[in-house]
Every structure is written in structure tokens, then in C-alpha cells.
Amino acid sequence: MNFSNYKNNFKSGSVAGAMAIMLAAFLWSIDGLFIRPQFYILPASLVVFWEHFLGFIILSPFIYIYWAKIKTLSRKSWLAIAWISLFGGLIGTIFITKAFFAAMDGEVSFATVVVLQKLQPIFALLMARLILKEKLPRAFYFWAILSIAAAYVLAFAKSGLDFTAIDWRHNAAIFAFIAAFAFASSTVFGKRVANHLDYKAVAALRFGLTSILSMILLLFNGYWLQTTNISGEQWSLLVLIVLTSGAGAMFIYYFGLRRLSASAATILELFWPFSALVLDYIFNHNYFNVWQSLAFVVLLISFFRVSFLSRPKELTFSACVIAGQGKGRSIGLPTANLDKNDLDIPHGIYAVSLLLQGQKYFGLMHFGFKDIFAEAVSLEVLIKDFQGDIYGENMTVTVLEKIREVRKFSGPTELLAAIHDDWLSLAKIIGK
Question: Which of 126, 209, 275, 359 has its CA 20 to 30 A from that of 328?
């Protein structure tokens, strides 16, 4: 990857996205090491309900703020929200909690749980390729596999990984396997909805729907009555979870997921075992051995590499030109509005190439809401060096590079200045 590509990735927010994912993973590691074990005497579904319900109370104002956008979500986006709430919020959390509680009780080895749970990035990479059509450079997959291998070394370099100690038939193994799939799929479908809706609203919807689903489960299994068994200290810890590893972490996570591919996000989530090792050293004074130290360095380098190799290759789609409101024409910049608004890419301004009437052109593509009050997604292109009536024409659009986020402008003068800068960015991208 040359220097210009590095700059483009910085410009598209990949650094901020990577830091956000790793911060969320760090908060999850604190939860797993110090907080969640305090709840092992309670039903997992009860803990899941209260951490999500309390989190929803904190996040619920964002549903009101972004309600105009939420109403415009496509059926595909609503299905994605339902999926991440059911699998990421409910099933994954309950099953991994039950798996680790079984290990804490000595029913099964921790290796059984850890080995199967770490299948999560493998599931996510496969699903991102199949569902989101993420096609990343070969170098990305090399570093991704290296990251997964390093994570295993971090986990087992001291104790050794004895596969004969793994009980593949125990319920905890099944729970860990299902949790790995649930969390992996939640990353992929979370990426789909985070592309099109503000991350704050995504987090709020997920916690709200998961609260409803977990409440139904509690009423069904009768564990709701055990709420009285939650001690004052555990209520305090639940509030701590909400502010850190629960709603707080997911709020940060979706901020990052919007700016990265799902494939990159799932690898960066491996910062969880990375940070757990650091915390173990700080609080328990457990030193790294040679293999762990090597894996530590490899994982750190891998995080850096996947962050900058995570930009998907060119996306191509076909669409028909439809009538718009004519606002672009009123300021001398007529745009072509397209009849497609369900692309699986983040909202933003993109450099594109177009095949129109047998000729190739370059241009700028706007994908997203035009302003905070807009109630419909706009997909339109501004074609370089083209004039003419093309209503009803079909064009093939190839997305080359994201230039910037969608912004609201105070007036035509500020908008024209921004478009001038966008044209300069387009010229650099196409080398003209």
C-alpha cells in the first residue's frame, strides 16, 4: 500500500475507528476479568436483562433525536437490528456467560470455552465476505490469520493447549460455539445498519430491543422473581457495567464499526485478550514468557496492519437516473439522482467512475441524508465534464474511494467551496 492510500485511510476515519474498537474491547476485558464473575450465582438471562434495560434508559434519548432517520430504515436494516439484538445482545451474551460460569464451577476446562469462543473472528471473516461482499487485499487476510494465531498463543503459552483436556461434548462447549457465531454475526449485521444510521441510534435500538427479548425470556423461564436476590453491591456493579462494558462500550464500538470494515473490526476485537494480559500483569504481577511476549508484539503489529488494509476493493452497481428536487441545478451543479439507496457502504461523499451511454466518466457521489432533518436517503452523482438530459438512463457506478463524511452547510457558498475541494480530491484519486 503506497503513502497516498495510507492518507486516504486516515481521511476516512480508519484510525479513529480502530481506536474505538480497541477501547471497547479493553472495557470488555475489564468486565470479564473483574466484574462479570461477581454475578455467577445469578441466572445469566437475568443479568443480561438488567444490564440492557439500564443501558437502554441511558441511550433512549437518541431514539427520539434520530426518530426521523429511524422511520426511513429499510426492511433489510430492521432485520439487521433484530439480528444483532437477538444474537449479539441476547443469545451471545447469555451463552458465553453460561459457558464461563460452567468453567468457574469446574464443570469444564477454561480451554474448552476459550478455544471455541475464539472461532468468532473466523466466523465473522467468512460472513463479511458472504453477506457484505467485503473483498479485502490478500495481505489483510494474512495479517488477520496471524492475529488469530497470536491470540491463541497469548491465551495458552503458559499453560499449554492440551486438546485432550477439551470436552467437546459438554454443554459449555456448545454454548461457547454458539456464542462465537452469535457475536460474529452481530458484528457483520451491525456493520450493515451502522452504515446507514448514526451509531448512537444503533446502540439505543439494540439495547431497547434486547431488553424486550430478554424480558420475554425471563417471564417464560420464571427467573424474573430472582431480581430480589440481586444484592446492593451487584446493583452497583450493574450500573458500572452500563457505563463501561455495556452501553458505554457498545456506544464506542458502533462509532468504530461505521468507520471500518466488519472484517477489520472483528480482528481488532482481539484487543480483548491483548488487554487482559496487560491487566493480568499490572494487577497480578504475572509476567509474560517468551512466546507470549512474541505474540504480544505480533498482535500489536497486526492491529496496525489490518487497520490500514481494511478498505474494501471497488464496489460496482447499476442504477437508473430519476427526477430529483432540482436543488443542484439551482446553484449550477446539476446532479443525477439514482433509484438505489440500500448500498452496504457508509454514508458519505465518494469518488466514482461511471459508465453512461457507452462512455466512461468520473464524478462525485453523495450517499446519505442531506441534513439532520431529512427523512429520506439520497443517492446522487455529480458527473465531471458532462451535460445533457439523462432521465431514465441506466448507468454503472464504480465506487473508488470515500472522500469525506456528509456535512450540513450554511449556504450555497460554503457548499460550493466544499465541492471544489472534493473535485481536487477526485483528481488526486484518478491521477489527473
Answer: 359
C-alpha cell at 418: 466544499
SS3 content of the chain, % helix, strand, coil (to 5): 65, 10, 25
Q: Which of 78-92, 125-139, 147-161 has the lowest mean pLDDT?
A: 147-161
C-alpha grid cell, residue 284: 497480578
pLDDT at 343: 81
The verdict on 148 and 131 lying in the same domain is yes
Rounded Cα distance between 320 and 318, Å, is: 7
pLDDT in tens, 364-373: 999 987 665 5
Residue 321 pairs in a beta bridge with 338
On whether the CB atoms of residues 300 and 169 are closer than 8 A, the answer is no
pLDDT for the residue numbered 277? 73
Domain end call among 254, 284, 308:
308
**H helix or E strand, kind and range, residue 218:** helix 199-221
Same domain, 190 and 319: no
State whether 259 and 230 are in the same domain.
Answer: yes
Distance between CA atoms of residues 426 and 400, nearest Å: 9
3-class SS at 394? Answer: strand
3-state secondary structure (DSSP) of residue 319: strand
H helix and E strand count, the chain: 19, 6
pLDDT value, residue 282? 78
In 357-425, DSSP assigns E strands to 359-368, 378-383, 394-404
- Which pairing describes strands 359-368 and 315-322: parallel, antiparallel, or unpaired? unpaired
Distance between CA atoms of 359 and 7, rounded to whole angstroms? 30
Q: Are residues 370 and 284 in the same domain?
A: no
- What is the CATH number for 419? 2.40.30.30
- Whether the pLDDT of residue 9 is over 60: the answer is no
Distance CA 81, CA 63 (A): 13
Indicate the average pLDDT of the chain.
Answer: 85
17-53 pLDDT, tens digit per residue, is: 899 999 999 998 888 778 888 888 899 899 999 999 9
pLDDT at 307: 83
User: Would the pLDDT of 155 be above 60?
Assistant: yes
Q: How buried is 388 (Cβ within 10 angstroms: 0-12 exposed, 13-18 middle, 19+ buried)?
A: exposed
Report the C-alpha gap between 123 and 130 in whole angstroms. Answer: 11
